[in-house]
Write a structure and sequence with these properties.
Elements: H1 13-18, H2 23-34, H3 38-47, H4 56-72, H5 75-91, E1 93-96, E2 101-104, H6 108-128, H7 134-143, H8 145-150, H9 162-172, H10 180-190, H11 198-213, H12 217-222, H13 229-247, H14 256-268
Helix pairs in contact: 2-6, 2-11, 4-5, 6-7
């Protein structure tokens, strides 16, 4: 009987990369990058609990749980979690004050931007931390077309290589800018409020600062801060150091599916 390892499995680049603690930096980078798409950011601001201090921490935990299930869960668990997300997003609408239009939260363009910003962030951090090389990087992008499909995207629309991902960003960059909502979102990451534990707030702030430093230079400039090559070099050195340090530390506590994935990846190696 074939084991059900979900979308990926112990031989995948995705499992190996996502088990690394340094990838938390990528998660924060992804949030900061995603916020630069005006409709995605406004749709999130108008519909999400992330901006309510009393609900933001539980909303953040649900997002982390979904990413974990999508990556490490069985096919049935992935489909159940994704169906819930698709059903929720299908009901939501946003308002664009620039055009006066109402738009769907689950529009193809919005979903594609969220996916590409997430995958680019995970891949960028993984490469700079020394986790993957060129061929593995393309494999990682191709594997995660599956992750895009379960949230409602047509696989034919999703970049399946680094070159396609670069082309996508070149096309979409003229649409990006810093809205007031994005500025507030960034402030919430750097100075978390609400009911999150004090240690979690410190960790989120620290990891978000590093995540910001790893953004593409053009994205840092959209946030009205310098996009200097020295920042890229410095953040890459920090990422390498973090990867080296976490490699010798004991595993942090994790849900059962992640503990199982750790065992299977180690066995596969």
């Amino acid at each position: 009987m074939t084991a059900d390892h979900g979308l990926f499995g112990p031989d995948s680049v995705t499992w190996r990369v996502h088990l690394e603690p340094v990838l938390w930096v990528a998660g924060m980078r992804a949030l900061l990058l995603q916020a630069l798409h005006p409709r995605v950011m406004r749709g999130t601001y108008q519909n999400s609990a992330l901006f309510d201090p009393k609900k933001a921490w539980s909303r953040f935990e649900r997002t982390v749980e979904f990413v974990g299930t999508r990556t490490f869960g069985s096919l049935a668990e992935v489909e159940l979690a994704a169906a819930r997300v698709r059903a929720l997003h299908g009901k939501l609408r946003g308002f664009d004050p620039d055009t006066g239009e109402t738009f769907r939260i689950d529009s193809r363009d919005g979903l594609l931007w969220v996916h590409c910003a997430e995958i680019d962030s995970y891949l960028d951090i993984a490469r700079r931390a020394g986790l993957v090389g060129g061929a593995e990087a393309d494999t990682y992008v191709a594997e995660n077309v599956r992750a895009a499909e379960v949230v409602g995207l047509d696989p034919a629309d999703v970049p399946a290589s680094r070159a396609e991902l670069r082309d996508y960003f070149r096309r979409v960059r003229p649409e990006l800018y810093l809205t007031d909502e994005a500025r507030r979102a960034a402030q919430n990451l750097f100075l978390p409020r609400g009911e999150a534990p004090a240690q979690a707030k410190v960790l989120i702030s620290t990891v978000s600062t590093l995540g910001f430093a790893t953004l593409p230079r053009w994205a840092r400039r959209l946030y009205k801060l310098p996009g200097l090559p020295t920042t890229d070099l410095g953040s890459s050195l920090v990422l390498r150091g973090l990867r080296t340090a976490t490699a010798v530390l004991p595993d942090v506590p994790a849900p059962p599916e992640i503990q199982r994935a750790r065992r299977l990846v180690r066995a596969a190696r």
